[in-house]
Amino acid sequence: MASFVGREHELGRLRAEWLAAREKRLRALRVVGVEGPAGVGKSELLKRFARGFDGDRVIWINGYQHPVSPSYDVIRRILRHLGVPPADLAAVFGDPEPEAVAARVVPYLRAAGRLLLVVDDAHTADVKSLAAIHLAVHELYFDPVLTVLAFRPGRSKYTHEGLQDQWRRHFDSDDGVLLTLRGFSVEEIMTLADRLEVAGLTLPVARQLHEYTDGIPLYATHLLRQVGPRGITFGHDPLGAPDSVARAIAAQIASFSADSRKLLVAAAVLGRSFAVADACALSQVSGPAEILEGATAAGLVEEVPGTAGREFAFTSLAIRNAIFYDVSAGSRRLLHAAAADRGVAPVLWHRVRSVDSSAEIAQEAVRAARAFLSGGRLSLAARYARHALELMPRGSGRAALLLTAVEILLIAGDASSAHGYEDEIAGCPAGPWRDYVAGYVTLISARINPAKEKLALALRAVRTGAAPGDPPDLHARIAAQLAIAALVRLEREDMLRYGTEAIEAGSEERFITAHAWFARTVGLALVGQAGQALSELAGAHLPGSPAGLDGRVARGMIRLWTDDLPRAYEDLSACVRHVEQGEALRIRQAQAFLGEVEYRQGRLIDSVATTQAALGNAVVNQRYWDLPVLNALACYPLAARGEWERAQEHASAATEWADHVGTHVGRAYAAAAWATIAQARAHHEEFLDASIRLEEHYDAREPGCHLFGPARADALSLLGRPGEAEKALERFMPVLEASGRRSARAVTARVRGQIAAARGEHPQAVAHYKEAAGLSADLPLERGRVELALARSLHELKPRRRAVAVLRSARERFAAAGADAYVLLAQELARELGHTDEVADDRFAGLTGKERELAHPLLGDQTYAEIGAALGKSHRTVEYQAARIFEKLEVRDRREFRKYYGDEG
Fold first, then answer.
1. Which of 518, 625, 719, 846 is least buried, going by the fewest C-beta atoms within 10 A?
2. For 466, which DSSP code?
3. pTM of this prediction?
4. What is the DSSP string of 277-338?
5. What does pLDDT average to over the chain?
6. Which helix (H) or strand (E) holds 147?
7. Residue 27 to residues 20, 32, 141: CA-CA distances in angstroms?
C-alpha cells in the first residue's frame, strides 16, 4: 500500500500496549493480535507502528514457510535476528517439544531488552513455532517485550489449527487484545484517493468503489490508479484485480482439477454470487459438492446463508474478477450466451456480452438505458447506452438509436463517450432532433455560441410541429438546454424565457423539466427576484417535486446567496448525499457551492476538500464550462489558508478556462479568485484591478453571489482614496437597497468605516465597524476583517487596550478557522501598532495547522462526537488527535487542557 489512511484507533491501542510493556506495567500477556483479510493493511499498520521504535529493537518475521522448511522455522529466524550463533541452535532444538524449545528461547528474548516481536502472516506459520512463542510469552510476564501476530480470519475448519486454538482463546479472553481491521469506509476511500492524488472521486463513485472492493485498501488503490473514477463509474466489464491478487489466484486454481476450474470460471461469469445449478449447467460439470468444498477450504467461495447450499458467493470481488479474466474473451462470450439461453438474470447483460453486433440486442439495450435513466440509475444508463452504440450495425435505424443513446450519455454524465460520436451525429439526417443533440454535445464541450445556434435552429423548427419519430417532448428538451446556455452567459431574460417555455412545453421525463426549473429559478435570483425563486422552490425537497434534484441544488445556491447558510448547507449536502450512482450534471454545482458555504462559515479544511472533489469530477467527466467557476471556488479557501501556490494555480486555471469558454460567469468568477488572493495578502492595488474586472463581468442584481459587496469601493478605501471610494459605493447602493442582503450590508458598513478612517474620522469609523461586526456574526472571515479595521481605528483613540482586545479576537477567530493568511495580517498589524507581545498567542505554537484547528473547539463544551460532526471527522479520529495534542502540550486530559490553555488559564 502506497498511502496510509485512518487506523488512528488501532495505532493508539498498539502504542498503549507498547507503553505498558516498556514500563513493565502489571497486566496479562503482552500479546496483540491484528486480524483482517488479505490486502486490508495489517502489514502497513504494523510498519507504521514500528517506525517509532528509535533505540528499541524490532524483530519482524513473516510466517510463510516453504514446503521444505525445517521444523520451528519461525523460531529459527527469530533467533538468527537475535544473533544466536548457528552452533547454539542445535542446543535450542535438542528436545523437539514446544515446552522445551520455549524454555531455551526465553533467555535470548529477555536479553534483547526492550523488544517488539512481529509475526506477520501468522496464519501461515508452522504450528510448533506458534506453540513455542505462545509458551515463551508467558515467561516474559515482567519483561519489556511486546509480541504482535498478524493473521487472516477464517473458519476453524479451514484455518490454521495452531493459531485458531492456542491464540484465539487468549485473544477472546478478557486479557486478550485483538484488533480487527476491516475495509475502509466510504469517507476513508475518498481520503485514500486524495493521498494518491487521484482527482474526480465523488461520494457516489466512492460508494461504488466501496461496494466493488469491500473497502479493502489494496484493491481500492489498484482500481483508483489503474481504472480511475470514470472507469469505476462507467466501466463495461468487471473491474480487474490487483496483479498480486490475480497472480496468486491464478496459481491457486492452477492446482485444481479441470472440472473445478471450469465450474469456478462459469460461476465468475454469473457474478459474485451464483446458483450452483446455473454454474453446473454452464460448465457442464456434475457433482459440484466436492469442488465447492475445496474452493471453500481455499477461501475462494462461501455458502450463502439460508440457501441450503444452493447458492454460493465469491469471498471478494477481487477473487471473482481475477477468475473471470483468467480465461479468454471468447470463452467468456460462450458462457454469457449459455447464461442468456438459460434465462439467468440479468438476461440482457448476458445477451449484450455474448455477441459482437446485433440490432435487436442494441434496441433492447437502449430501451434499458432509457429506463435506467428515468429511474435515476445513471451509471447503468450510460453503460447500456454505450453497449447499444457498440452493438448497432451501420445502416437503417442507427441514426435514431445514435441520437437517443448520445443524449442518454450526456444526461448521465458520460460526456467523454458522447464527444466521440460528434462527427457521426453531424452526418445524421437533418432535423430538429439532430440539431438538438448536436447542440447539446457542443454545449457540454463549452462551445457556447455554436451550441446556441444549433439549439435555436432546432427550436425554430420544432415550434412549427414535431417531425415523425422525434421525441414528443423535444420542444421542452431544446428550450431547457437554451435556458442553461443563457445561464452560463448571464443572459437573464433568456434564462427566464427559455426556462418558462420548457416548463410550459412539458415533459414526462423528470430530468428535462428539472433542467428548466434550475435555469428559471437561478435566473430569477440573478435578476433580483430571489424571494420569488425560493417561493417556487418551497417544495423542492419533497418526493415527486417537478424541480427534482436540480431544483434543490438551485434552492441551496440561492439560500447561500441570500445569507441563509445553515439551510443552504442542508440543501446542498443533501443533494450530494442523494445521488447513489452515476454523476448527475448538477452534482458538481452542489459540491462546489457546498464548498463555498463551508468557506463562508470558516470551515476552510472542509471547503478545500469539497471544492477539490467537485473540480476533480468536472475534469474527469470533461465538464469544461464548469471549470472557471469550480477553479475559482477552489481558490477561495486556499487563499485564506495562505496556500499561495495552489491558490494562484486555481486562479490562473479559472482565467484560462474563462477565456476559452468566453462567458461572463466564468470571467466574473476568475476575477473573484484573484480578488480573494489579493484581499488575503493585503495587496490593495491588485485587489482594485480584480474588483474592476469583477464589476465589468458581473452586473446581476443579486449581490450575495460573492462576499465582496462594493469591491471597487473597498479597494479604493484601503488605498487611501476616500473620494473615489465614496463614488464607487454610491453606484453600488441601488443593488444593495433592492436586495437588502445582510452580507453585502456588512461589507458596505466596513467600507464606510474605511472611508471615514482614511479621512481621519475614527469615531465615525468605529461606529460603522461596530455595525459591520453585528451584521457579520456568522461570517468568520469577514468578521475578522472588520475587527482588523476596528483595531486600527481604536488604536488612534483612547484607551488603546480596546484595540489590543479586538486585535486578539481577530487573531483567535482567524486561527480557529485555519485562515493562516489572515493570522499573518493580524500579526503584522500588531507589530505595526506596537502590540506584538499583547496580541501574540503562543499557546499552540508547537501544534500543526490541523491540530490548532481542533484545539480551539476542544476548549469548548462540545463532545468529541459533536466536534467530529462539525469538522467532518469521526469520533475516534477526534479522540486520537486530541490525545496527541494533549501529549504535545504536556497535559493529562481535556480538563487540564481547558484549565491551562483556556481563556481563564
1. 846
2. P
3. 0.73
4. HHHHHHHT----HHHHHHHHHTTSEEEPTTSTTSEEEES-HHHHHHHHTTS-HHHHHHHHHH
5. 87
6. strand 145-151
7. 8, 13, 8
